[in-house]
From TrEMBL:
Transmembrane helix among keywords: yes
UniProt-listed InterPro entries: LytR-like, LytTR_DNA-bd_dom
Domain HTH LytTR-type, residue spans: 144-248
Stretches of the chain forming a coiled coil according to its record: none
One Pfam family cited in the UniProt record for this chain: LytTR
Name of the featured protein: LytTR family transcriptional regulator
Transmembrane residue ranges: 7-23, 35-55, 67-88, 108-127
Keywords, ordered alphabetically: Membrane, Transmembrane, Transmembrane helix
């Protein structure tokens, strides 16, 4: 699900609720304008866009792990609580219905029921869309254009075994051989899928699908042994993360 589509959804919810509330509270129309109600509703629901980004990030980090869905649901529950607090705080200071007869803290009692139901519905909707995207929403796999000896090769991420930094260049070890690109290692983390590629050292990124073994050395040192026998040391700052990652991916 794209952020643009979700933003349109949130704006639609805010505008629709604004119109319905203004129509429902017909007795206060001489004191409250439709524009005031619409702006109030936009202020209440726009923070959900940040909530969508947060859930999207949680889903990407937890993808293909047993903790993925529980973390996503926990994040959704936290968002409902935070949004409830935001709704209460904003309404008690900026609601156009503040201090009007029958309202308390700028809202009427039925507001809380509808808001809670909509929040629960949004969490369910976002979790479902993030976990089961439509085929049209799945981004096409990238291909890297590599050159060697005057020939051009097109390499998919699944063909890359590991990447190693060498000064201002990055060496790519692939199923088609070794290639060198004049790009820093960190740029590849922005385009390669996180569920397959992880950084294990400031100069090394590995494809988890090509790892054959994790080997313990002296003390707390750790080495990754690739399927072709290549050995790469894991930096101390990544040892815990890599160990936990493989523990979650195995049965």
């Amino acid at each position: 699900m794209k952020l643009k589509n979700f933003t349109i959804l949130i704006f639609s919810i805010a505008l629709l609720l604004g119109v319905l509330i203004y129509w429902r509270e017909y007795a206060t129309r001489d004191q409250v304008t439709l524009i005031q109600v619409l702006l109030w509703q936009l202020g209440i629901w726009i923070p959900w866009i940040l909530g969508f980004l947060a859930l999207d990030k949680i889903e990407k980090h937890g993808r293909n792990t047993k903790w993925g869905l529980p973390l996503l649901l926990a994040g959704g529950l936290l968002l409902i609580c935070l949004h409830f607090g935001w709704f209460f705080g904003l309404s008690s200071t900026l609601s156009p219905y503040l201090d009007l007869e029958g309202s308390k803290f700028g809202v009427y009692r039925y507001f809380f029921i509808f808001w809670t139901l909509i929040d629960i519905g949004l969490v369910w909707f976002v979790v479902d869309k993030l976990r089961n995207p439509n085929p049209q929403e799945i981004e096409p796999s990238i291909k890297l254009e590599l050159t060697r000896g005057g020939s051009t090769y097109f390499c998919e991420p699944s063909q890359i075994q590991l990447l190693a930094a060498e000064n201002y260049y990055t060496k790519l070890f692939t199923t088609q051989g070794v290639f060198v690109m004049r790009k820093p290692l960190k740029t590849f983390l922005e385009v390669l899928p996180m569920d397959s590629f992880r950084k294990i050292h400031r100069s090394t990124i590995i494809n988890l699908d090509y790892v054959a073994e994790l080997a313990r050395g002296n003390g707390s040192t750790l080495e990754v042994i690739m399927k072709d026998g290549t050995r790469r040391r894991v930096s101390k700052s990544f040892v815990k993360e890599i160990t936990q990652l493989f523990r979650e991916r195995t049965y």
